[in-house]
C-alpha cells in the first residue's frame, strides 16, 4: 500500500508493509504513532496496539 490510506472506504487497503506505518487510524490513514495505533485503530486493516 503506497497510498497512505486504508480501510473500507479505500477498497479495503491494509497498512501491512506500508512505508508509512502498519497501523490504520480511525480516519483511514496508515501510520505508526499512537494516534494511528490506539483508540479507533482499524485492526482489520493493520496493526493496533491500543
TrEMBL record:
What are the Chitin-binding type-1 domain coordinates in residue numbering?
3-50
Q: Which cysteines are joined by disulfide bonds?
A: 23-37
Q: Does the keyword Disulfide bond apply?
A: yes
In its keyword annotation, does this UniProt entry include GTP-binding? no
Renumbered to this chain, the signal peptide range is none
Q: Which InterPro entries match?
A: Chitin-bd_1 (IPR001002), Endochitinase-like_sf (IPR036861)
What does the UniProt keyword field contain?
A: Chitin-binding, Disulfide bond
* Gene Ontology MF term list: chitin binding
Q: State what protein this is by name.
A: Carbohydrate-binding module family 18 protein
Q: Look up and give the organism this protein is from.
A: Plenodomus tracheiphilus IPT5
Organism lineage string? Eukaryota, Fungi, Dikarya, Ascomycota, Pezizomycotina
